[in-house]
Amino acid sequence: MSVSFNHTIIAARNRDESARFFRELLELPEAPSWGLFTNIQLTDGVLLQFAEPPVEIQMQHYAFLVDDELFDRAYRRLCDQGVEHWADPQMRRPGETNDEHGGRGVYFKDPAGHAIELITRPYL
C-alpha cells in the first residue's frame, strides 16, 4: 500500500466556527461529525477534525493547494470579511498576495489563530 495523508486534528477555540470558516473559504460541503470533532473533508479525501482542547492553543501552520479560480474567490472572501492577510509568512507585506514558485499565495490566520496559507502551485 502507498502512503497518503488521511486526517489531522486541528485545535480550535470554537470547533464549529473554525470548521465553518474553512468550509466557506474553501467551498466544501458539510461532512459527518462525531464526538469531540467537527469535521470537514477536503476534495482529496483528507479529513480535518476540529476539536476544543482544554489547553492553550499553540499556533500551527496549514497550507492548502487550490486552483486559480478558487484562490480568486477565497481571496475575495478574505478581503470582503476584512481578514488581515500578508504576502509573506513573516507578515511584513500586509494586504498583498505573492507570485512565488510560479503561482500565487497568501497568508492569514484562522479563527483559532493558526497560520493559514493558500497557494496555487506546489513548492516542489
Automatic annotation (TrEMBL):
Report keywords, A-Z: Dioxygenase, Oxidoreductase
Superkingdom as given in the UniProt entry = Bacteria
Per UniProt, residues of the VOC domain are: 4-121
A GO molecular-function annotation: dioxygenase activity
**Family matches, as SUPFAM superfamilies:** Glyoxalase/Bleomycin resistance protein/Dihydroxybiphenyl dioxygenase
Q: Which Pfam families match?
A: Glyoxalase (PF00903)
InterPro entries assigned to the protein according to its UniProt record, in alphabetical order: Glyas_Bleomycin-R_OHBP_Dase, Glyas_Fos-R_dOase_dom, VOC_core
Q: State the protein's name.
A: Catechol 2,3-dioxygenase
Highest classification ranks of the organism: Bacteria, Bacillati, Actinomycetota, Actinomycetes, Micromonosporales
